[in-house]
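Course assignment 3, question 2. Fill in each field.
Student: A.L.
Task: Predict the tertiary structure for the chain below.
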Amino acid sequence: MAILDSAGRGYNLSASGDKHEAEQVSGLRVSAEFFSVLGVKPLLGRTFLREEETLGRDQEVVLSYGLWKRRYGGDPSLVGRTIRVDGADFTVVGVMPRDFEWQFWSGQRQLWVPVGYTKTDLSRGDNSFILIARLKPGVSVAQARAEMEAVAGSVQRQYPKENANMGATVQPLADFGMEGLRTTMLALLAAVAFVLLIACVNVANLLLARGAVRQKEFAIRRALGAGGFRIVRQLLTESVMLALAGGAAGLLLAAWSIKLLFLFFKLDALQLPMRPLDSIPMDGRVLIVAFLVSCLTGVLFGIAPALSAWRGDVNEPLKEGGRSASTSSRNSLRHVLVASEVALALIVLCGAGLMIKSMTRLLGVDPGLKPKNVLGMSISVPQEEIYNGPPGLPRFCQDLEEHVAAIPGVLSVGAVAHLPFEGDAGRGFQVEGQPPADPGRMPGADYSVACPNYFRTMGIPILKGREFTQRDTLNAPGVIVINQTMAHKFWPKEDAVGRAILLGGTDGPRLTVVGVAGDVHNIGLDVPVREQFFRPYMQAGWPVMSIVVHTASAPATFIAPAKKAVADFLPERPVSGFENMEDVVRNSTGSRRFPMLLLSLFSAVALVLAAVGVAGVVSHSVAQRTHEIGIRMALGAGTLDVLRLMVNINMAWVLAGLAAGVAGSAGLTQLLTDLLYDVRPLDPIVLGAVSLLLAAVALLASYLPARRAAKIDPIAALRCE
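Answer field:
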């Protein structure tokens, strides 16, 4: 069993002469068994020893392969030497192999240090660690879960106050954090399957048309003794070879399009918990799946034409000008295929329409802040009591004001422990003047710490009272700023300013509300605002702070000056993770934006394929009925009559397909329920608009070849057979 810090944080690598400048990299505190539980061995050196988990003996570090190659040039002699991490000497004891990528929630880790239990870790109120373990052979996940639940119950009985209403469960590591992503992938997989089926229907229609042209060839071969199975085998072989060629072209297109997607779109919200999404390779497994799907597809779209050729009449095609008796049934089959692809296209289009409408509603949500021209950056600061103690840098906020705010073009500067949309923390408390809650049922809220001017810099309004000032120090009374939702929940009929909470319980510090800020959608635009309160950094520190800078022009131009200004007062603690807050707000919709994009692309492909299928059927029908059209026109039928005849026959099947598609959408769009915001899976406006669009496209696709039929010369048509 291994223990790891669930949050992780940035670690500062100090500058070393002219060779390396100071930088911040993402790291993780882990126990000695972490690497062995995962079944990975270091490329160089060793991993941690159990005695190195003790605070004071935890000055060792294991580097990722990427960091070792990038910063230290892949020097094998680095193992055993010391490097400066967070201003202290750490001994490099090992380097992990190239293929070991541990991504956990907030980015790929570049170094690991022993867990080194701090005062905060050892307090009964801290629950910031995750356990990972390897099950014994023959032990199921259900058995392990039952055993852990029993252990958790025992701990709860032993510590009824600290562990009230707390439990434990067991979950496969491969499933951890995959709930939302699994829904997205299932919806996209369904869309891909529908588009593939539409393509199969189109190819089947083309092969049916080609089979109709080859009727005489098949009849001659059967008359000469060729068996029906042999013809079926030939046609299936042709279709499978065609599918394999298409699959190979599809693999090349996929390799190119994946790079394009990750080049133009930030997919942070779709990252896998354990590794970057863009690091998943197109390996042998992908090739095998592509090969099997191509073969299955070839059989799927080749079976109908092959059976049609097998069942065809032998004598009729050999007659001069003869017509096959199976022409009518073959045409009916082609129309049924058209109806099915229209139904499938409607389902895909409906899914895309729902996602687009959902995204439109989501982007209309007020985030509660003004992100324009706001630059964000991260900095790791020293903190003895990681999440509860006094600030490690008492002058941090003041130094920001004196150095960063002095940059020409900077309007204001602040800092916060958690930027909106980038994580949160929670704290329990008792409301002063209200009956104390039982242990485990204590009220709580999202918690953060902030520097003065944070709210002004982010454009978050202070509705009542004030925000923090430089006078809110450790020697001053404890204060907090709460959001409007928290004020309405705990003081619904009175002014919250001047009221107080007791942090952590009745024996905790008393914190007075000095301000009420506007609500901010901290978790996401689609998540209701939760209660939140802030403490001033000068009274309660945090190990990682996000500096925010409001600038007069494009934030990107202030990165270098801001970096230098921070280095002037914290030379060994570099800033990193520069980002425009407008991008942060926009990327918060990534879990919905990316599937919307792909569904829109799939729906466009489905619409084009459906139009091609409809046009193909009408064109083939025109070719088959040229003689009939000539007779009708010779007997007095006008251009509009012929046009109406050809369009009506096809549109009847299109309307049938639309009806089937509406019925199919009722069930299959339920897959999108978790991805929609303020939109029902069966939205009548979306369903109606998509149906009209598909009907209009089908009508246009029918009209073009039908118009060609209406212009046929009757004399030439009568001579064609």
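Instructor remarks: Residues 228-264 form the longest helix (37 residues). The radius of gyration is 34 Å.
Grade: pending
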